[in-house]
Amino acid sequence: MKWEKKDIPPELVKDLAAKYNCDLLSAAVLARRGITRGEDVCFYLEDDLRYLHNPFELPGMEDAVERILAAKEEGEKVLVFGDRDVDGISGTALLAGFLGSIGMDISWRLPAGDEPYGLSLEAVE
What we know:
By secondary structure, the protein is mainly α. It folds into 2 domains: about 10-50, no CATH class; about 55-125, no CATH class. It is about 50% helix and about 10% strand. The protein has a two-stranded parallel sheet. Strand 1, helix 5 and strand 2 form a beta-alpha-beta unit. Helix 1 (about 10-20) crosses helix 2. It is elongated. About 5% of the residues are buried.
């Protein structure tokens, strides 16, 4: 895979960092994505949890939470299965770490080699 970074003026990055009180890396990412206007920049830099989307708007979330809580209550071992892309690895690490921190017996697995993405019967077996 070849990564191609959009060329941006260093002055734009420095100006964004100074104006919005963020680090240069964040400012560079925003600039490369074309996010340079006030309201747009503030949206991406917002760290107040009240502005996050409600996760219970995702289909099946309530059932998933109930099942996880039941597994915790029953002392069941839980397998967190993720994908081998960046968000899959990050999500697997975050979820396994959190569930372990609340006392659950956790293991995790990611597809390896030529295994397909997504949970499959083969992976479960």
